[in-house]
């Protein structure tokens, strides 16, 4: 009997579908497993390569970088992949970030990552650093303005000296005029000529003085205009910095400090305006006196000629007896009466110029002191025989000299740390791992590393000089700000200005000179501060009356002797300063806070390369890698293959990125 096979056929078809599905699922699982295996192999291999970080760099600076070339990285990865039977895989290195890429950002990240897990001594507290920055910015603005005004004051003092010379010359001319009258009354040609020639010589001096006066007055006005323009530019920059929208609550103090500084600068500009206005009136008197002097010179020249003729004619009257005294042929005789008549056109020069009778010596001492303080700062503060490192940078392959602006994505880039906190962490790191003038240690290519971070010069001496100059500038500005708050010392400066000018001096010049005295005083105090720092002592950033070292007597003594004397503190005062003061390294690092992070990072790389390069020939930290990304491609065979219509192999790809 014939049977129906429909159920068998149906079940066979169902079985085939089920088996096909199971095989597809198995192949898919196999392919996914292979991809996972390759991914794991790639990650494990890259981890193994990254574990070969530069040991000396870590031991000495706690910085992790991979000192390999791309070829070496590829070779090492292939070696580790071989343990996974992937020795034939294609390797592509992508997005490999070196230490110099992205403005050396990786250095900043590594330092921040390392420092945030340690307990370090911070030079400054996060809550006070903003205030310090604002005060320093204000002090810097005031110091710059004071320097501009100093140039104007020097020209004003030159102007006053010229006025004194003019007054003396005019007084002499009046004296010579009286001598000429005496000679005429005595019929003495020699007296007339002697006084006349002296008058003429003095007239030439007066012309020269007036020309110098005009040039000095012009130069003073030009310098004042330059100072006014630069002050205004700085004011606009400050407004831009503090404009609404960019300020937090902590910037209210900065705005207040900026307003105080601008008020001081505006007051000084107003004082100069008052001085120039009165000097303009005095200038007209100078010109009038010059005109009278020139007219008198012409009169006296005629008087001298007439006196000579009168002397000759009077000699003719003494001829031997019997000679005729008739003039004959219409000749006229010159008499002393004619000389006297000509002299009546002479006009005594009115002494309308106010001549100062003050203590000019003190003004000269202050001017010379200012010039002296602008000399070789290291010689002034450390002495000619001071032992200063002769370290010099000779490597031309330093990272800072071949900076790259390559922008590459950094795996695991930090974004949570605030800029201020990072800056303080970097400062603490610098304190821990880089030496300065006060704590030099082991032999290195350059000894003053923190100074190099600040200045970036090619020799230790230049770096130290630049650091000292910057500290001096900061201390000068801060000292000047303090002097403006100390009413007693401002009054002392005003009294000294009055003493220098005398009661006859122009009234507006006294406050102008007073500001000059304050600026010199602040500079001299800054010299003593900086010398103390270089000798290992501490100086507070904000001074009080008790912490101020230099009085006006000491200032004048410094100007006379050209010696910076450091007053030794008592044990109690020294302990007080130690608690509230900052040492030399602290001031250097305070200035480093004002540097861009990029500058500091590149210079750190320079120092690391130089120091490690002394032991490892050819080491270049800029070629070291901070992060590496790789892509691995390999072909795998299908396990279940149905025929020619399907690909026999498939490509497995894995991408991995690792960073320190």
Q: What's the multimeric state?
A: single chain
| Largest sheet report | 3 strands, antiparallel
Mean pLDDT rating? 83
Q: Distance N terminus to C terminus? A: 82 Å
Q: What Rg do the Cα atoms give? A: 43 Å
Characteristics:
single chain; 660 residues; mainly alpha; three-stranded antiparallel β-sheet; 19 helices; 63% helix
Folded structure, characterized:
The chain is mostly helical and 660 residues long. The protein contains 19 helices and three strands. Strands 1-2-3 form a three-stranded antiparallel β-sheet, with helices on one face. The radius of gyration is 43 Å and the shape is elongated. It starts with 5 loop residues before the first helix and ends with a strand.
Entry summary:
The protein is mainly α. The chain has 19 helices and 3 strands.
Secondary structure blueprint with pairings:
Elements: H1 6-50, H2 55-61, H3 70-81, E1 90-98, H4 105-115, H5 126-185, H6 189-241, H7 252-316, H8 336-343, H9 360-373, H10 377-382, H11 419-433, H12 449-455, H13 460-485, H14 487-501, H15 509-534, H16 552-561, H17 571-580, H18 584-592, H19 597-613, E2 625-637, E3 649-659
Antiparallel strand pairs: 1-2, 2-3
Helix pairs in contact: 1-3, 4-11, 5-6, 5-7, 5-13, 5-15, 6-7, 7-8, 7-15, 9-15, 9-16, 12-13, 12-18, 12-19, 13-15, 14-15
């Amino acid at each position: 009997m014939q049977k129906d096979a429909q159920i068998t056929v149906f079940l066979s078809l169902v079985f085939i579908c089920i088996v096909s599905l199971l095989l597809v699922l198995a192949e898919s699982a196999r392919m996914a497993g292979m991809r996972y295996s390759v991914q794991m192999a790639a990650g494990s291999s890259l981890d193994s390569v990254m574990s070969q970080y530069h040991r000396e760099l870590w031991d000495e600076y706690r910085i992790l970088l991979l000192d390999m070339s791309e070829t070496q990285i590829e070779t090492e990865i292939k070696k580790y992949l071989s343990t996974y039977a992937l020795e034939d895989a294609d390797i592509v290195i992508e997005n490999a970030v070196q230490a110099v890429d992205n403005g050396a950002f990786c250095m900043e990240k590594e330092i921040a990552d390392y420092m945030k897990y340690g307990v370090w001594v911070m030079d400054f507290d996060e809550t006070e650093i903003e205030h310090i920055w604002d005060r320093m910015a204000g002090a810097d603005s005031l110091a710059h303005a004071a320097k501009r005004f100093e140039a104007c004051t020097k020209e004003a003092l030159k102007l006053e000296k010229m006025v004194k010379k003019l007054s003396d010359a005019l007084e002499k001319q009046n004296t010579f005029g009286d001598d000429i009258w005496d000679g005429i009354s005595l019929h003495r040609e020699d007296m007339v000529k002697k006084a006349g020639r002296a008058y003429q010589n003095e007239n030439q001096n007066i012309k020269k003085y007036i020309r110098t006066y005009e040039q000095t007055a012009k130069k003073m006005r030009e310098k004042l205009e330059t100072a006014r323009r630069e002050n205004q530019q700085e004011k606009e920059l400050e407004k831009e910095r503090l404009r609404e929208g960019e300020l937090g609550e902590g910037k209210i103090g900065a705005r207040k400090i900026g307003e105080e500084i601008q008020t001081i600068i505006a007051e000084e500009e107003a004082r100069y305006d008052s001085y120039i206005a009165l000097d303009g009136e005095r200038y007209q008197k100078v010109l009038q006196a010059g005109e009278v002097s020139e007219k008198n010179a012409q009169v006296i020249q005629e008087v001298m000629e007439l006196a000579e003729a009168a002397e000759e004619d009077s000699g003719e009257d003494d001829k031997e007896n019997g000679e005729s005294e008739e003039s004959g042929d219409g000749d006229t005789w010159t008499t002393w009466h004619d000389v006297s008549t000509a002299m009546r056109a002479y006009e005594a020069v009115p002494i309308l110029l106010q001549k100062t009778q003050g203590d000019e010596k003190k003004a000269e001492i202050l001017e010379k002191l200012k010039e002296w303080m602008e000399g070789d700062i290291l010689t002034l503060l450390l002495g000619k025989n001071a032992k200063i490192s002769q370290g010099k940078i000779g490597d031309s392959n330093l990272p800072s000299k071949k900076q790259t602006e390559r922008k590459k994505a950094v795996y695991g880039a930090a974004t949570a740390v605030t800029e201020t906190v990072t800056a303080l962490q970097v400062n603490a790191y610098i304190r821990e791992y880089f030496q300065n003038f006060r704590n030099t240690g082991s032999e290195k290519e350059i000894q003053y590393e923190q100074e190099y971070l600040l200045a970036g010069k090619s020799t230790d001496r230049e770096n130290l000089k630049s650091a000292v100059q910057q500290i001096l500038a900061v201390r000068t500005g801060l000292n000047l700000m303090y002097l403006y708050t100390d009413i007693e010392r401002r009054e002392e400066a005003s009294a000294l200005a009055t003493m220098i000018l005398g009661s006859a001096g122009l009234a507006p010049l006294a406050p102008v000179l007073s500001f000059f005295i304050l600026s010199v005083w602040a500079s001299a105090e800054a010299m003593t501060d900086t010398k103390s720092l270089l000798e290992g002592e501490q100086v507070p950033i904000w001074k009080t009356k008790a912490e101020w070292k230099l009085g006006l007597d000491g200032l004048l003594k410094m100007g006379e002797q050209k010696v910076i004397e450091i007053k030794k503190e008592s044990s109690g005062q020294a302990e007080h300063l130690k608690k509230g003061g900052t040492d030399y390294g602290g001031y250097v690092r305070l200035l480093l806070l004002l540097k861009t992070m990029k500058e500091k990072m590149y210079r750190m790389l320079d120092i690391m390369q130089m120091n490690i390069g002394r032991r490892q020939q050819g080491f270049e930290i800029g070629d070291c890698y901070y992060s590496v990304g790789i892509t691995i491609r390999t072909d795998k065979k299908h396990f279940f293959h149905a025929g020619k219509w399907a690909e026999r192999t498939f490509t497995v790809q894995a991408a991995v990125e690792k960073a320190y």
